[in-house]
Amino acid sequence: MRLRGGAAAAVVLVFAVAGCKADTTTGSGGPEETAGAGGSGAALTAAESLTVKGRAPKTGYERERFGTAWADTDSNDCDTRDDILQRDLENVKFTGGHCKVSYGVLESDPYSGKEVTYRRGRSQVDIDHVVALSDAWQKGAKYWDAGKRIALANDPLNLLAVDASTNRSKGDGDTATWLPPNKAYRCTYVAAQVAVKKKYALWVTAAEKSAMEKVLSGCPGQKLPVGGNPTAAPPRFHAD
Predict the structure, then answer these.
(1) Most buried pick, 26, 64, 167, 224, via CB within 10 A?
(2) pTM, full prediction
(3) Distance between CA atoms of residues 17 and 46, nearest Å
């Protein structure tokens, strides 16, 4: 696995798992174990610590409550979508400068395991919110201020370039209702959801927590992803 975002690090995890093994694909960045991300079993321990509550009503949810899509909250003059494309794709090409990605290859899509080519204007690659925004809304984000919601929507820890057609089957599902078809990525995926929910103090349903623990018990050495942006966007950003 490789760590992207201006630096590269190799992480090797070796453990035997039935139906769920350490992700060893290359060509895709995103939420994955990083050096210093916590000791063996950190993901399972974190999942066990998450607060359990019932799912709140979806009433009042709109994408705009999380700010303008792909806001440049890290102030690097590139929007968040292009930041993630640069991080996760190989053979990246740009249109007019160093931000707008026009082409790249997702060499091993984490959700399906297949190779996907990205061309700007075609919907073959999505930037997925690992914890869907509407799921977050129903598990705590409804009560946040705008700055925290904007931060979640643009946090690289919660974003991943994936095959569009596979991603559309996810909708706003949580671990209890959807897992990547690529079984080799499930431990990394669930660990990423746990990391985001812990970082932002989102709760989980009883069924969701049980599903997280079931997946992660099959890979007990799974580390917990860390990093990403602060949990509050700069005050110049606003949401409806």
Answers:
(1) 224
(2) 0.85
(3) 20
